[in-house]
Amino acid sequence: MAEVEEQGRKPSEEFTDESEEEDSEEEPKLKYERLSNGVTEILQKDAASCMTVHDKFLALGTHFGKVFLLDIQGNVTQKFEISSVKINQISLDESGEHVGICSEDGKVQVFGLYTREGFHENFDCPIKVVALHPQFTKSNYKQFVTGGNKLLLYERNWLNRWKTSVLHEGEGIITNIQWRANLIAWANNVGVKIYDISTKQRITNVLRDNVSLRPDMYPCSLCWKDNTTLIVGWGTSIKMCVVKERNPTEMRDLPSRYVEIVSAFETEFFISGLAPLADQLVTLFFVKENSEHMDEDFRARPRLDIIQPLPESCEEISSDALTVRNFQDNECRDYRLEHSEGESLFYIISPKDIVVAKERDQDDHIDWLLEKKKYEEALMAAEISFKNIKRHDVQKIGMSYINHLVEKGDYDGAARKCQKVLGKNMELWENEVYRFKTIGQLKAISLYLPRGDLRLRPAIYEVILHEFLKTDYEGFATLIREWPGELYNNMTIVQAVLDHLKIDPTNRTLLTTLAELYTYDQRYDRALEIYLKLRHKDVYQLIHKHNLFSSIEDKIVLLMDFDTEKAVDMLLDNEDKISTDRVVEELADRPELLHVYLHKLFKRDHHKGQKYHERQIGLYAEYDRPNLLPFLRDSTHCPLEKALEICQQRSFVEETVFLLSRMGNCRRALQMIMEELADVDKAIEFAKEQDDAELWEDLISYSIDKPPFITGLLNNIGTHVDPILLIHRIKEGMEIPNLRDSLVKILQDYNLQILLREGCKKILVADSLSLLQKMHRTQMRGVRVDEENICESCHATILPSDMAKPFSVVVFHCRHMFHKECLPSSGTLPGVQFCNICSAKRRGPGSGILEMKK
């Protein structure tokens, strides 16, 4: 709640009741200033009785009968001595060029501020109110009304004389008049009336609710929200009245307009003034001294509330208690609320003080947020409204936020905000770095230092790197990886790392970081040595990126010891840079690594390493027997005798069998399968592969006295050898396991063969018939013969130039054409002729199909 103290204050100073603000987190809606300058001097000697507000100036009336024109800051621009007693009302037209004044002694004056025209009249009773037509400046709207015991309308006629009309009388003193467009609203002891000056009809009468209150002590407050909405406040009740057009069918003898009360509700305190604020209301309340709702110290202070009207109640938006001068001595009638529609300014007038309330702008909002230490919200508000704020600077707010976070100990949050707040201001950045160094929090700000287009001095980055090097090797390594090498002096940091390595020479983190620094400095050989020593995963990336293949020729063993797969792939991918011969030479003392390299080389290309195939036989036999047989099968450059010797020495039966078969010694190979492997299935498979009758004979001879072998042969031989040959050679009385099943399988295989043959025969006959029919259709077609065709024998045009002469042409099914006289005589078959060309090429007997004669 805002409080205006008795002593003078600066106009721009906000004054709040601290006892209530400390407990409230809700931001006030209005801010307050005391209207000072000339007003202060006036009210020291006199007392305010009324005031009217125009967008351009203020008009203040006093108890001593004076009227002062003031600028918006309260400076006196004009002074009028109207009377010796209290000025009751001042009225201005919309242009601000004419003023109407009435006083307690019955004087009424209406005159132009910039012209000499005017109206002066003295009445025999006090005139409480006067109101000019809003368009009084225009000649056809020279009208005003006064209110005392009667409501009088003054109009200037065409003779330039004032004509007086009584609009209303007989209901006591008229205490308030408000004129808007063509509607005049006034209040007397009974209620509120509205008069339509265009139709000269009184529209309505809104009765006073609480008749127990004295009208002179609790006067009615009237305020037009717009041209048709009147707000009435009286005692503790507020009504919102809307003037509406009546349906022509309902008029009869009724006025053309009527009033509908759209909202009516009671308030907690007595109303001293009303003013609209968008769809809300600003209300000035008088709080009686005996109110139970206020503490003793704050009794009778006027309150300025913003409320949201509802149909039968209201919602309080904000409430401020104002400590105006001499508030203890004031009554409800001593307060007035005037407002300036253009700027949403609200003036609280009391006898000894005038306070201006205005809506808080974005600067005020930021002030409140900063006061409440809501720096994050203040910074966000300033960034959003940076074009509209006048007293604040986004960067200064940001710096205040950073200072607040540092004081709170949230160093990481403060450092994070630096990135946003400091922007591209190098001086501020450097100041913050040194501040964080002073408080021992360089690590916090290191993550957010600029490293793009904006860069600080190298010394700044070096200070942070040295700090990390002293306390956090891992953090140091992270910064080296993340920061571009151009940010700092690389040699300085390298030397610092070397100094630390003297103390801890095996520290892996420092060595890795040193290698990265050497890489930034393009000293790749040193970086490579460190990576290989550490067996670091980035060694291959370094070699590829900087083409260091010439540097690794003598380090191939180290690379393969570290990661054999990656090393071999790299060497094979870059054969043009490191030859196979060079790799083999380097790996000569490490046969297990040599085998991996040559094996992958063979997989990529069976011919590239052909001169090493002989060596590979021993390598496969020693280190990778499962891949020996595939190698022997795929290699065409492998010496078979050497391979056979090695396989026989190592008793590799399968490999020996393959080599023997490849060298043509199939019988010996089959013998090894049967004798050493004793695997009838393998023997049968081998015999099938070779498809040699002698091998089958050897296999049967070897198996004839071995029942398990006979069973295997019976199960598999049916499709390759006549099973009868085997069955006839089985000794009578020999027990053969699963003989019945084997014989059944032989019969099934035989039946299957018969079915297959019959099926194939049917398909062959059907295809032959189809092709024969197709050929017959083709041969039955006509053949076009024209001038472009030639005789295949004499090569002359097939048709004579003179078609009138008789001629004879023979056309064969093969489309070759001959003059009949060019064909040789018929062969052994009389009447049948054959194409000489097709017969010579042995295409089959093509007989003539067409003979043309004419």
UniProtKB/TrEMBL annotation:
SUPFAM superfamilies from the UniProt entry: TPR-like, WD40 repeat-like
Function: Plays a role in vesicle-mediated protein trafficking to lysosomal compartments including the endocytic membrane transport pathways.
Gene Ontology terms: biological process: cellular response to starvation; endosomal vesicle fusion; macroautophagy; protein targeting to vacuole
Family to which this protein belongs: Belongs to the VPS41 family.
Subcellular localization: Cytoplasm, Cytosol; Early endosome membrane; Endosome membrane; Late endosome membrane
Lipid bilayer topology: Peripheral membrane protein
Record-given protein name: Vacuolar protein sorting-associated protein 41 homolog
GO (cellular component) term, any one: clathrin-coated vesicle
Compositional bias ranges of the Acidic residues kind: 14-26
Region Disordered: start-end pairs: 1-31
GO MF annotations, alphabetized: zinc ion binding
Top-level taxonomy: Eukaryota, Metazoa, Chordata, Craniata, Vertebrata
